[in-house]
Amino acid sequence: MGYLDSILYGFSICLQPINLFYCFVGVFVGTLIGVLPGIGPVATISMLLPATFKMSPVGATIMLAGIYYGAMYGGSTTSILVNIPGEASSVITCLDGYQMARRGRAGPALGISAFGSFIAGTFAVVALTFLAPPLAAVALQFGPPEYFSLMVLGLTLVIYLAHGSMLKALMMACLGLLLSFVGLDNISGYERFTYGIATLEDGIGFVPVAMGIFGIGEVLYNIEESMGKRDILQAKISHLLPNLKEWKDSAMPIIRGSLFGFFLGVLPGGGGVLSSFASYAMEKRFSKHPEQFGQGAIEGVAGPESANNAGAGGQFIPLLTLGIPGNPVMALMLGALLIYGLQPGPLLMIRNPDLFWGVIVSMYIGNIMLLILNLPLIGLWVRVLRVPYPILFPLILLFCLIGAYSINNNKFDVLIMVIFGVIGYLMKKVRFEGAPLLLGMVLGLMMEDALRQSLIMSGGSFLIFLNRPISAGFIVTAIILLALPAIRWVAGRKMRLAAELPRDE
Amino acid sequence: MKYYNRICSILFLVLALIVIWQSFLMPIGRLGKPGPGFLPLGVGLILALLSAFLWIEAGLRKSALVQVQFLIGEGRWPGVLLTVGSLLAYALLMEFLGFIICTLLLLFFLFRFVGNQQWGLVLTETILVTLLTHLIFKVGLKVQLPVGLFRL
């Protein structure tokens, strides 16, 4: 099938009324949770996952994808109006977005972030359309050693890009791997870490763990910290359409944000957060008046908001072509596809073209829906923002409870979720991140299978990972990334020592 | 933070040692044919090593400025404990009492005692949310929710 045929085929799938409906529900819910601080796409997708079991896999995936990129749109609204990021990827938008709003320019800030998001989101889908098939063809050549090395690289990137301590992120990834080993061994059927508990034989589900850490843990943290108190800008929002000068100032940041954001998004571990931060730094460097950044520069809103949407689109590439998730949301999507009986990876495009092209093309339509939802209906979201946290948090908790129970109709999953909720709360306190844990947990068994198969192939030699060029490339990159902080530390120490030397020679 | 990092490193070390011990009880296999205990042992060893690094790093860093406080803030901390307690109670009782009764009790408790809202509002919200979620999830999405003792 040529590109045009594929795209037309995709449209024929996602223009079916039921799929259009799912797409709308997805982007609507995505915007909603994007606007609401304290609940993100990971918790939402895990909560809604069990409810999708009765839907068609195509419809369900279209909806879940919509939640993810919809949240990227909604996140900026909260950043601009309340100075609290609705999503992690909108943290940087607070800097200039809120300053614009304080100076009475909330309208153009919201407008440019919606338009920028639309342009970048559409660019990412076009790039995804053209890049995914050739990449899937390359991935077909991969054997177990390449897959193992790629997963090691993916996990390393997530660790490297962690916001806090890399050491802690590495420990979290190990913990995730260990959690994935609980249950029956894939190859030998041997019971591991089950301690005679029958429900542990199937392993610990990553959906209750994700809901616990990202849903319950977050709520507990908010209850204690602030009870979600926030000052919402009371001024009336007008002039959503940016004027000519604002467009002129934003054009290049949007273009750069789209390109750069997409390519950072393709990297495992990349995605919205990294893309938006990188774009802000880049715009500040390119700007003729960098001193205006932080004072309400429209470039500081247009660039990052475009980049995080392009990054979200890019994240679908490793999932759809390699079957490897790059962030916790994609890990959930992978889990969802497996539950629906589909195998994400290079063969997905051939075996399930309806899902592959249906989901990609649904993003074109979803982006248009989001533009409509976020511009004319902005008033609705501002009203949603005013829902007080004491009303909101019991609802989030209840949805988590229902979601956890309905995975297997088993209270065991609910208990796991609550336990990991407490763990997530403690992790937030002592600054351990949840993303490496979740990714380790999802990749754990796949990595183990690939490692064991590779070692069997090589008769026990680890050199197999270095003898094959693609695999060697992945492994060497991973080693460099892990070694970088240590090198920087040693170099810094040398410089400090040199500075302390007496200079009177 | 240094103090908490040290506690974390001890906790992780204990976990790693348990994993290593348990892995030795499984067939580890050999390099050419790794068994089910092979990777758990490897990851356990790495985690033990990382825990030791965290202990050392905690001593080297001078970032004692970062304060970690548990259960803080103007009398809000009981909210965290109450919430965790009510969630655990919900998990343990939901199959016995059923979704509707458990949800009514949970929401009432959270709205009133953690959210500190007024009685009238609490009752309205509790009943409305329970009814709506029942309609959406059980009737609409056909999610199986526990009916419990009273078959509700």
Describe this structure in words.
The complex is a heterodimer of chains A (505) and B (152). Chain A contains 22 helices and two strands. Chain A has helices at residues 3-14, 17-35, 41-48, 57-82, 93-102, 106-139, 144-160, 166-181, 206-225, 244-266, 272-286, 299-314, 316-322, 328-339, 348-351, 353-374, 378-385, 389-408, 411-429, 434-458, 464-467, 469-500; strands at 183-184, 191-192. In chain A, strands 1-2 form a two-stranded antiparallel ribbon. Chain B is flat and about 60 Å long. Chain B folds into two domains: 2-71; 77-140, no CATH class. The mean pLDDT of chain B is 87. In chain B, strands 1-2 form a two-stranded antiparallel ribbon.
List the helices and strands and how they pair.
The complex is a heterodimer of chains A (505) and B (152).
Chain A: H1 3-14, H2 17-35, H3 41-48, H4 57-82, H5 93-102, H6 106-139, H7 144-160, H8 166-181, E1 183-184, E2 191-192, H9 206-225, H10 244-266, H11 272-286, H12 299-314, H13 316-322, H14 328-339, H15 348-351, H16 353-374, H17 378-385, H18 389-408, H19 411-429, H20 434-458, H21 464-467, H22 469-500
Antiparallel strand pairs in A: 1-2
Chain B: H1 2-24, E1 29-30, E2 33-34, H2 38-60, H3 77-97, H4 99-114, H5 119-140
Antiparallel strand pairs in B: 1-2
Helix pairs in contact in B: 1-2, 3-4, 4-5
Q: What are the salient characteristics of this protein?
A:
heterodimer; A: 505 residues; two-stranded antiparallel sheet; 22 helices; globular; B: mainly alpha; 2 domains; 3% strand; flat
Largest sheet of chain A: 2 strands, antiparallel
Distance between the termini of chain B: 49 Å
Percentage of β-strand residues of chain A: under 5%
SSE pattern of chain B, N- to C-terminal: HEEHHHH
Anisotropy-based shape of chain B? flat
Helix content of chain B: 55-70%
Q: Tally the helices of chain A: what do you get?
A: 22
Radius of gyration of chain B (CA) equals 24 Å
Averaged pLDDT of chain B, please? 87
Q: What number of domains of chain B?
A: 2
Largest sheet of chain B: 2 strands, antiparallel
**Contiguous runs where pLDDT drops below 50 for at least 5 residues of chain A:** none
% residues in beta strands of chain B: under 5%
Q: Could you say which overall geometry of chain A the principal axes of the C-alpha atoms support?
A: globular
Instruction: Please state the structural category of chain A.
Output: mainly alpha
